[in-house]
Amino acid sequence: MINASLLPASLSNKASLAGLSRREIASALLQHGIAEREIRMRVNQLWHWIYYRGVTDFDQMLNISKTLRQSLSEAYNLRLPEIVEEQVSTDGTRKWLLRLPPTNDQDKGAEIECVYIPESDRGTLCVSSQVGCTLTCSFCHTGTQKLVRNLSTSEIVGQLLVARHRLGDFPEGVRPDNGMVPSGEGVRAISNVVFMGMGEPLYNLNNVSEAVDIMADGEGLSLSKRRITVSTSGVVPEIEKLGEQCSPMLAISLHAVNDELRNKLIPLNKKYPIKDLLFACQNYPGVSNARRITFEYVMLKNINDKPEDARELVRLLKGIPAKINLIPFNPWPSAPYECSDWSTIEQFSDIVFNAGYASPVRTPRGRDIYAACGQLKSETEKLRARIRMTNT
Ligand code: SAH
Ligand code: SF4
């Protein structure tokens, strides 16, 4: 019989404990034959090593007996998504193509993208919640991708773990030397997480909620929930549930101020029109002036960028504790839109600002490596196909 622990990781079908919730780790340990009275203590030990210390080998867990470490490593591993490709933009943004551990013998491991955006006072990790997206927003490249499935909790948390390893963000970690990662005593490379990568997080609510709780757990990864933002195109019935289950910050991809246009940009609007969406926002659990909802508005030339649109936007959001984030449209090959001119964006931003909203225009980051919003995945697939073609 072949000893599974001697097989290369890609051929071993052992389950990884990295990225799991306390409940899932407990059930794995029970299955492993650990006595019920010990479970709590063992879960706490594993939790500390995996999420606080960032170890990737059972043998490093020094307060666990050698025999137990050995038997755990025969049944499980601590594998994370694998970085297949890293691209670093001239502005320091990093895009990783990640291959997920195979879920069964036939699975070759799906690929997703994850983006890291360093700024002077923070570092933001943009994570994916699905492989691809079932929605077909007309301005978004991810929506054109065919293969779609939900990511598991551990595949979502795995993105943060792998990024923290790569950026030297665990105790004893080393920052990459090609720079632009915030550093200094007690400074975290990753201080914020946004669910703005591939996929619609509210179509994968339970796994996303569980992942948010793991990321925010004070004994482990310890990110404040005020620094975790979930962005949705507007799956109205799930908004309240998100607030009740895990209460992260909420971002809404609004992009239009009337249903006629929003139906075209975000077809889901036909099911959940603007009025219903804003009602759900008003009632988002925990919303207040100190915990505002971010409304994202992509600037599309001659489509949604008139001064009247800006005025209507302000009118619509009256009464909702809101921030407005203007996003210059990130083009992709044969996209049916163009980005608004800079002067138009400024004029739009002035109207919003004069109405009392800070209206930051989100500087496009990592455009040179196709890492900006809505540019994820399909382009990398095409580039790799092109590289393969030129190499054969
Ligand atoms: N599905 C979720 C989260 C992922 S998309 C959502 O739609 O909110 C993250 C953000 O990128 C959304 O606000 C989305 O509208 C925006 N986006 C998508 N394509 C874009 C593009 N080409 N240019 C600029 N922003 C885009
Ligand atoms: Fe999906 Fe969001 Fe892109 Fe729409 S904008 S297709 S919901 S990822």
Give an overview in words.
The strands form three sheets. Strands 3-4-5-6-9-10-11-12-13 form a nine-stranded mixed beta sheet, covered by helices on one side. A two-stranded parallel sheet has the order 1-2. A two-stranded antiparallel sheet has the order 7-8. Strand 5 and strand 6 form a beta hairpin. Helices cover 32% and strands 16% of the residues. It is elongated. The two termini are 39 Å apart. Helix 1 crosses helix 2, helix 4 packs parallel to helix 5 and helix 6 runs parallel beside helix 8. The protein is of the alpha/beta class. It folds into two domains: 74 residues, DNA polymerase, domain 1 (Orthogonal Bundle), CATH 1.10.150; 308 residues, Alpha-Beta Barrel (TIM Barrel), CATH 3.20.20.70. It binds S-adenosyl-L-homocysteine and iron/sulfur cluster. Iron/sulfur cluster binds next to loops.
